[in-house]
Design the sequence.
């Protein structure tokens, strides 16, 4: 991007002039970069260095990486431990500069199969060597706490995971939207229901001792796991603008055959789909839901962006309709996501 700039800071290229002089534009561009790439970009000029520091200060306070056993199986590979290589690759994509790191690893991943069957002193020595190499991947001032156990628990490796509701808050801030997209993309390839939206802020009645910063940005979620969980979502697109079209969408949801007993309904709608959207008629979508699902409670909100698609997961856990959506097809505006979550029989 800087190829059009001369050493004196001048340029005949308009784009190069903008990227050499307008901090607001530079900051917005740099906000899309992960932390390591951001640090490299900071060496371009004083302006870019100052912008990079501001972006880093405003980045998410928490990030995570997940490495599966297939990606991290240790062996005698000539270029080193596969776990270290996999973590190093993941660290290239995080958007924060780590200060504190907590990692958990199962012992079979942390040391090789041969070493794992060896003497306990050998296993401990090899674990310490792997831990030392792992710590070198992080900044020198970073505090690292590692735990090696017989097994670990993770949401992504849960075979009974059925539904994840995702909510991003204060997503209008720089970098917040890309962080939300990264969270959603983590689950988008899984055969689960994914639904949610973007809201103004996050509050909690249990956070009196540690009150939340009203200007903070981030993502929260709620997951539903279990063999008996069934769920379905339908997307009411921007062209769904009258009662007949809304009822047609509800018929699609009804066709999923989700049991209505012990079931909860969720509605995540764009703030622009109020009564003005339906020619001054109120509760058009909620009333249509009630017509087809009279015994199912409905919860939800009008937000600033919607997440989801047409997707059905039944009791035998077969994805019946997904339309092979891509990550970007899960984010919408001027739409409504309707979801049913069946919690299983109460018997």
Sequence:
């Amino acid at each position: 991007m800087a190829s059009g700039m001369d050493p004196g800071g001048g340029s005949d290229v308009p784009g190069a002039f903008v990227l050499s002089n307008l901090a607001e534009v530079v900051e917005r561009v740099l906000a899309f970069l992960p932390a390591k790439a951001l640090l490299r970009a900071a060496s371009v000029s004083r302006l870019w260095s100052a912008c990079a520091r501001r972006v880093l200060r405003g980045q998410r306070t928490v990030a995570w990486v997940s490495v599966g056993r297939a990606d991290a199986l240790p062996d005698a590979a000539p270029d080193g431990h596969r776990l270290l290589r996999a973590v190093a690759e993941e660290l290239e994509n995080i958007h924060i500069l780590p200060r504190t790191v907590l990692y958990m690893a199962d012992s079979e991943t942390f040391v090789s199969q041969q070493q794992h069957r060896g003497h306990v002193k050998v296993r401990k020595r090899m674990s310490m060597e792997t831990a030392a190499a792992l710590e070198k991947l992080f900044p020198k001032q970073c505090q690292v706490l590692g735990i090696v156990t017989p097994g670990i628990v993770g949401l992504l490796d849960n075979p009974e995971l059925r539904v994840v509701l995702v909510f991003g808050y204060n997503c209008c801030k720089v970098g917040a939207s890309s962080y939300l997209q990264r969270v959603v993309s983590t689950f988008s390839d899984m055969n689960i229901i994914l639904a949610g939206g973007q809201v103004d802020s996050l509050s909690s009645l249990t956070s009196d001792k540690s009150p939340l910063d009203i200007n903070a940005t981030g993502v929260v979620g709620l997951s539903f796991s279990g063999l008996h969980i069934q769920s379905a979502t339908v997307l009411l697109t921007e062209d769904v603008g009258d009662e007949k079209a809304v009822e047609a969408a509800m018929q699609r949801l009804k066709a999923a055959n989700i049991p209505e007993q012990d079931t909860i309904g969720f509605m995540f709608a764009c703030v622009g789909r109020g009564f003005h959207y339906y020619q001054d008629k109120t509760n058009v979508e909620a009333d249509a839901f009630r017509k087809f699902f009279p015994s199912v409670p409905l919860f939800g909100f009008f937000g600033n962006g919607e997440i989801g698609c047409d997707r059905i997961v039944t009791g035998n856990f077969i994805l019946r309709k997904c339309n092979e959506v891509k990550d970007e097809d899960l984010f919408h505006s001027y739409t409504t996501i309707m979801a049913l979550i069946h919690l299983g029989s109460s018997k």
